[in-house]
Design goal:
37% strand, 7-stranded mixed sheet, 4-stranded antiparallel sheet, single chain, alpha/beta, 29% helix, Rossmann fold
């Protein structure tokens, strides 16, 4: 994925983030990325849907200028428009399956950024080494652009499918990297730096790192 050197190269393309400012991490988990950034003159907001992750992030981030909020990023309002210089997707977008939810996530991210603000996206993508993925994650199925995992919830979970007589729930969206760039551009982001780590037998899903500017 993106190295620290590459991250700050992207920031250097935009003087606001390079000098510091306000940063939001979307899908922050326990917030290791956000803490790393906020040790470099940023004040931060971390957002995640998991109560446990938010609790752990607060405990681990004491002494830093970081706030945390629990929210479902598919549609929740998490800040005022034009508030942040920098937004980071902490591996959240690939957890959002439906096209309309993905668009809502990206549009909300754009709304939160100042014009010319920087969005750093770190996400899974295709191409996928299907054979290696099947060997490493037995029971999971890649169907179309979605990975499905076995589930005992049956049809209760939205988007569930049946494979080999067993219910599977959608867990990850694995769009082609080109289609993900198109999604970004459709929500008023202009990619500046794009890096792709292609799938290998030991890491069967490709990954995409993007630095994109918020534009009108």
């Amino acid at each position: 994925m993106l190295t620290r050197k590459g991250f700050w190269w992207m920031c250097s393309r935009n003087p606001g983030p390079q000098r510091g400012g306000k940063v939001i991490e979307l899908g922050c988990g326990t917030a290791p990325i956000l803490r790393w950034v906020c040790k470099r003159r940023f004040s931060g907001l971390g957002v995640d849907v998991s109560r446990t992750a938010i609790s752990m992030a607060r405990e681990q981030s004491k002494g830093l200028d970081i706030r945390f909020k629990r929210a479902d990023l598919r549609g929740a309002v998490v800040g005022k428009p034009g508030t942040f210089n920098l937004a980071i997707d902490g591996h959240c977008l690939h957890c959002i399956i439906k096209a309309e939810d993905r668009r809502a996530f990206l549009e909300n991210t754009r709304r939160l950024l100042i014009e010319g603000g920087l969005f750093v996206l770190l996400t899974m993508c295709s191409p996928v080494d299907r054979k290696s993925l099947s060997e490493m994650t037995p029971g999971q199925k890649l169907f179309g652009r979605v990975i499905y995992a076995p589930s005992n919830k049956g049809a209760e979970f939205e988007g569930s499918r049946t494979f080999d007589g067993k219910s599977h729930m959608p867990t990850r969206y694995i769009g082609h990297w080109k289609s993900i760039l198109t999604e970004l551009q459709g929500c008023r982001f202009q990619p500046q730096l794009v890096r792709i780590n292609h799938a290998t037998p030991s890491n069967p899903v490709s990954s995409l790192s993007v630095g994109a500017l918020a534009v009108d």
